[in-house]
Specification:
Blueprint: E1 2-7, H1 26-40, E2 43-48, H2 52-61, E3 68-72, H3 81-89, E4 94-99, H4 105-111, E5 120-124, H5 127-152, H6 167-180, H7 183-186, H8 234-245, H9 265-277, H10 282-297, H11 307-318, H12 329-338
Parallel strand pairs: 1-2, 1-3, 3-4, 4-5
Length: about 350
């Protein structure tokens, strides 16, 4: 992210003014900003001026390069309507920084004429205020990219039938045809004698008919020596019941969420492991991460005390489909280690 840092009037004397943090000069501040920017992946350009017009010119001239602005207007915050108009006309997010002791921060922020046109405000007594402003710009950029990616990775096109109509529409039409077709057309006569389920006089299945939903696909052949169809021994009845109900569900694999449980670090690690092993494509991992991130924003359950970390990991995973956010295998392994 390209960030423009603007220092206002009198900041060239930082560290020598009453109330400034001792030992912090403008050069020291710019050095710490550069170090933090490299850690966050940002590129900085800095400018200090005692003239209101120079700050206004910088906002205009750097608009094609900068993607965010950290602005300390200094004493101009209390009455520069010209600088306010320039910030309001800018399409870039601007975070205002005020270097003030704790006692006067709230009052100065209320009196700042830039308050209503800036994205955020940070007040502090030293370099930490600037560093916090830099991180807020990064978080705002991440949220904007996440919103765009969520729309991009939205619902795919509706599957269509062979006739070209949507599958849901075709299925509804087929069901309507079955409901309106005559009985003779709906059930063609068999070419050879076959066993037919017993039916009552009104056409409904007889009470003794076996349900087809839970049972096996084919009825068991009658046992040898059986004289009457439909009769079975107690042992055969018990065996048939065992087959009908089936075996219990196998235990879920490691890292799989239990029913009703929230997202866990183990599940995210398992998904990343599938990606590294080739069992999951980058787009598949991004789509899964995007869905989980959206669910967390809507208040879904999550492993206790891990919501913030899991949100950060999910954002990184679904932003990886973009060229600027691509993650290498080494970075994926580092995310797994961070989730231990």
């Amino acid at each position: 992210m390209n960030v423009l840092v603007l220092h206002g009037p009198t900041l060239q004397a930082l560290g020598h003014r009453p109330g400034d943090a001792p030992g912090l000069t403008l050069a020291d501040l710019d050095r710490r900003l550069s170090e933090r920017a490299r850690a966050l992946g940002h590129v900085l350009r800095t400018l200090q001026s005692n003239h209101e017009g120079a700050l206004v010119d910088a906002l205009w001239e750097q608009r094609a390069w900068a993607e965010g602005v950290v602005l300390n207007p200094g004493p101009l915050a209390l009455g520069s309507h010209v600088l306010r108009a320039a910030v309001a006309a800018s399409t870039m997010p601007v975070v205002e920084v005020l270097l003030l002791p704790a006692k006067g921060r709230a009052g100065a922020q209320r009196r700042s004429v830039l308050k209503d046109v800036c994205t955020a405000h940070v007040a502090g007594a030293g370099a930490e205020a600037y560093l916090e402003a830099l991180e807020r710009l990064g978080r705002a950029r991440t949220r904007a990219e996440a919103a765009r990616t969520t729309k991009t990775l939205g619902r795919g096109p509706e599957p269509r039938s062979r006739a070209g109509r949507p599958a849901a529409e075709a299925g509804e039409g087929a069901r309507a045809a079955v409901r309106t077709a005559p009985a003779s057309a709906a059930a063609p006569a068999p070419s050879a004698p076959a066993r037919a389920p017993a039916r009552a006089t009104d056409g409904s299945p007889a009470p003794s008919a076996r349900p087809k939903t839970l049972g096996p696909s084919r009825a068991a052949e009658p046992a040898a020596g059986r004289t009457r169809p439909g009769t079975a021994s107690p042992a055969e009845t018990a065996a048939a019941g065992a087959k009908t109900l089936g075996r219990g569900a196998p235990p879920p694999p490691p890292g799989t969420r239990q029913p009703g449980a929230g997202l866990t670090r183990a599940e995210v690690r398992a998904r990343i492991a599938d990606r590294l092993a080739g069992r999951l494509s980058p787009a598949g991992l991004a789509t899964w991460a995007r869905g989980e991130w959206v669910a967390l924003q809507r208040g879904a359950a999550v492993e206790a005390g891990q919501r913030e970390q899991l949100e950060d990991v999910l954002q990184a995973l679904f932003l990886a489909v973009q060229p600027r956010g691509a993650l290498s295998d080494t970075q994926l392994v580092e995310w797994m280690a961070a989730l231990e």
